[in-house]
Structure formats: structure tokens, C-alpha cells
Design goal:
Layout (H helix, E strand, L loop, with lengths): L20 E7 L2 E2 L3 E3 L11 H5 L2 E3 L2 E5 L5 E4 L1 H14 L7 H14 L12 E10 L12 E10 L10 E5 L16 H16 L4 E3 L16 E5 L5 E4 L8 H13 L4 E4 L11 E6 L3 E10 L2 E4 L9 H14 L10 E4 L1
Parallel strand pairs: 9-10, 9-15, 12-13
Antiparallel strand pairs: 1-2, 1-3, 1-8, 4-7, 5-6, 5-7, 6-17, 7-8, 11-12, 11-14, 14-15, 15-16
The chain binds pyridoxal-5'-phosphate and 2-OXO-4-methylpentanoic acid.
Length: about 350
């Protein structure tokens, strides 16, 4: 299929309307079969559960063109599982995990002309989401839901591509203990909007959130998990019940151990330790691995020894291996790559 005429290498992380999307509806206790449609508009009641009480969750994953010309999706089964967990926590009906993967693959296939070419630096971002669609005025879950999947071609999440970022320690909290930080609920992101606007106004690319209970431990950013590298080359990544279980982070932990032979510690990370790390990166579907060069805590600067010019060497190796697996230049672990036929 002929590709769309886009300037693939200069895409930012934005929404571009593509040709087809998937829509399924839940009513009377069951999902319908769902359809592929051209219609990008959603029409719902003014009193829909999502509009009143933010009953919505979403997912994010990517499709890639491999070196040998296939279109593949990275670990969509993991997103299906995480979305099911999000739905359960938000009292929403689970969209069956196998059907989730089928719907995602269908939308990618239908929008083949929008899948960025190999080597362009762009990818196809896939956004499944669900929301309560019928009127709800007392505080309770909706009875009817819509599940949708759209795709949009994207470039790097952070302006400047792979240049190290400066981030700040946020005074706001992202997720409460025993709250919803571990699921991909829209409400977590609504909570973070004031914090990210504030950070951007002050010239920072992102926020480092600390644990709300003690403000001594590193949690994550608004849209990515942290990876740190110690001066002796170990990978350290925060463990917390209130951070999103990043599929990228879990994949990188495997890559670090099994491909690169690195030692990995998944544990609580004290903010006090951060000054002793050699490298820091933000990992996620959108962020891939974006290096952090500087972390500012109320005027006090922590400058990572990897500097402000390029990624540190260990983060670079992790980045190269992960993106090699995604783009088909490095053999993937069993089950990580879903080929869109
Ligand atoms: N943390 C948050 C808050 C996110 O929004 C994301 C993005 O999905 C991640 C972490 C990274 O998760 P993943 O690697 O599954 O995309
Ligand atoms: C993703 O990486 O898929 C996310 O949802 C993060 C968001 C900041 C775009």
C-alpha cells in the first residue's frame, strides 16, 4: 500500500487523524462485535459517566515497520492485560484480552498507509480506550461503555529527541497510596495536568513524583517510569504499588539481564540516593528511553555524570537493544513481537 505523504522524520508526538478506528459497545451486560469505522466522532449523553465522574481508562502501544518490511506491534497482550486490570479497578467491564489484541491489529492493518517507514524515526502510536457512556448522576459506575482504538503516527515524545532532559521534583502528588497510580486511568493524568503545566512554565521537561506518604522515595514521572544506572553499572528501578507497571520498563529489565548481562535491582529508591547514580532515563511507550541529565529539587541541582549532551553508555545500550528488538534487527524473546498479517 502506498504510504501517506508525511514528513515522517519531523513528526512530533501529536494527533493526526488516520483513516479507520475500531468501536465496540457494551450494553445489557455484553459487548457487541464491534466495527471498523471512518467516523472519528463520539456522540454521548451530556450526563455520560465519563463526563461526570471520569470513568475512563486507556492504553498506549506502538506498531513499527521492521527492517525487512513487516508491520509489527510490541507486546500488545501486555497492554490487554493491563487494560483489564484498569477496568476492574474502575468498575468497568473488561474488553476480552484476545479481542483487544485482534482489534488493535485490525486498526493497524486498516491504517497501513500511516505506519511510518523503517528508519524514519517515527512509529505508529496505538491508543485503545474505554469510557462509561450512559447517563450517570448519582456516583456509581455506568451501565453502558464504549471501547475504541485509534492510531496516529508519532515522533519523539520530548522535543529535542534524545537530548538529555532537565526535570524537577514536583510539589504535587500523582497518586495516593492504595489509590489508582498502578492503573492507566484518565483521572491520573487529569491530576497531573497542573503539575506538568507548572513544570513546563518553569522550563522543565517533566516532573519527578515522590511517594506522597513520606516524600522520600522516587515514584515516576507523569508519563514514564525511572531507570537509574549505578556507577558500577547496575540497573536500578523503583518498585512501588502506586506507579504504572510500565511494559517498557519490564521489558528493559529482561533485556538488561538476559541480553546485556547486567545486574538489576527493582526496589524502593530513596531520593537521597539519586545524587549517587551515574545515569538516569525515563522509560515508556511514548518516551522509549529518554535520558535525564539534570534533576532539580527546589533549586538544588543534581547533575548526572552522563551530562547534558548525550545518553549515558548503559542507557544507550539498553535503548539500542530494545529498539533493535522492536524494529526486527535483534532477535526478540518469544512472544514479544506480534506480526500484523
Ligand atoms: N508511567 C506512566 C504514568 C505512563 O503514562 C506510562 C505510559 O504508558 C508509563 C509509565 C510507561 O508505560 P509503558 O512502558 O507500558 O508505556
Ligand atoms: C504512553 O507512553 O503510551 C503513554 O500513555 C504516556 C503518555 C505520556 C503519552
Amino acid at each position: 500500500m502506498e504510504k501517506k505523504n508525511l514528513d515522517w522524520s519531523n513528526l512530533g508526538f501529536g494527533y493526526i487523524k488516520t483513516d479507520k478506528r475500531f468501536v465496540a459497545n457494551y450494553k445489557d451486560g455484553a459487548w457487541d462485535d464491534g466495527v471498523i469505522t471512518d467516523d472519528d466522532k463520539v456522540v454521548i449523553s451530556e450526563c455520560a459517566g465519563v463526563l461526570q465522574y471520569a470513568q475512563t481508562c486507556f492504553e498506549g502501544m506502538k506498531a513499527y515497520t521492521t527492517q525487512d518490511g513487516h508491520v509489527v506491534i510490541f507486546r500488545p497482550d501486555m497492554n490487554a492485560e493491563r487494560m483489564a486490570n484498569s477496568c476492574r479497578r474502575l468498575e468497568m467491564p473488561v474488553y476480552p484480552e484476545d479481542k483487544f489484541v485482534d482489534a488493535v491489529a485490525k486498526v493497524v492493518k486498516e491504517n497501513d498507509a500511516w505506519v511510518p517507514p523503517y528508519g524514519s524515526g517515527a512509529t505508529l502510536y496505538i491508543r485503545p480506550y474505554m469510557f462509561g457512556s450512559n447517563p450517570v448522576i448519582g456516583v456509581k459506575p455506568a451501565d453502558e461503555y464504549q471501547f475504541r482504538v485509534f492510531v496516529t503516527p508519532v515522533g519523539p515524545y520530548f522535543k529535542g529527541g534524545a537530548k538529555p532532559l532537565t526535570i524537577k521534583v514536583s510539589d504535587f502528588d500523582r497518586a495516593a497510596p492504595h489509590g489508582t497510580g498502578h492503573i492507566k486511568a484518565g483521572l491520573n493524568y487529569a491530576m497531573s495536568l497542573h503539575a506538568i503545566v507548572t513544570a513546563h512554565e518553569e522550563g522543565y521537561a517533566e516532573n519527578m513524583y515522590l511517594d506522597p506518604a513520606t516524600r522520600t522515595k522516587v515514584e515516576e514521572t507523569g508519563g514514564a517510569n525511572f531507570l537509574f544506572i549505578t556507577k558500577d553499572g547496575k540497573v536500578v528501578t523503583p518498585k512501588s504499588d502506586s506507579i504504572l507497571p510500565s511494559i517498557t520498563r519490564r521489558s528493559l529489565v529482561y533485556v538488561a539481564k538476559e541480553y546485556l548481562g547486567l545486574e538489576v535491582e527493582e526496589r524502593e529508591v530513596l531520593f537521597d540516593e539519586v545524587k549517587d547514580f551515574a545515569e538516569c532515563g525515563l522509560c515508556g511507550t511514548a518516551a522509549v528511553i529518554s535520558p535525564v541529565g539534570k534533576i532539580v529539587n527546589h533549586g538544588e541541582e543534581i547533575c548526572l555524570p552522563s551530562g547534558m549532551e548525550k545518553m549515558g553508555p548503559t542507557i544507550q545500550k539498553l535503548y539500542d537493544t530494545l529498539t533493535g528488538i522492536q524494529m526486527g534487527t535483534i532477535e526478540a524473546p518469544e512472544g514479544w513481537i506480534y506480526k500484523v498479517e
